[in-house]
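Re-run with default settings, no changes from the original entry. Doing this only to confirm the output is reproducible before filing.
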Amino acid sequence: MKPMRSLFALSTLTMAFAAGSAYADGNSDAVASHHLRVPPKVMRRLVEYELPSVRLVRADGHKVNFPEDIDDGRPVILDFVYTTCTTVCPVNSQTFLELEQRLGHDRERVHLVSVSIDPEEDTPARLTEYARRFEAGSEWSFYTGTEQASEAVQQAFHVFRGSKMLHEPVTLLRPAPGKPWVRFDGFVTAGELLDELHEKVALR
């Protein structure tokens, strides 16, 4: 990892947990409940999902049909975020950044996808700034849209919890269009995602 990115990773995680602690001081019950929902270890399983034909807005401002936009032939690794999150999202996004780095020259052959669960606040401009904070490459796409569209995608992947404060760390990997998704509940590592990719996809 480059020194600048190492410092960025450390500062991001430090700020995330510091902010989480500060938030806990005023909202201890909500935060405690949130963390009790996080699995103590990563659970992996194969799941079939049918995605709704909804239109979302990418961080570049383009309105797209979500299933069509991610069905570009590449493996997809997907998670759910919101830009003001101080707990789960910075950790998951840091994992995506590390995965980009470890993929090296293969990074553009894998489509990373982050969908906002707070579309009212997460405008394309905010998502663009969030992507910049995590040095996201061109292979990492961020999506927002209407509240109804975001909820429909969350429902399709069985991650909707009724409130962004109750969201859980879930990462989903699909090796190719039409294939089952590998669902990771909990804080999956970049190494685990890379191992899954190498097991199912011939990147080179």
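Confidence is low (pLDDT under 50) at residues 1-36. The two ends are 22 Å apart (CA to CA).
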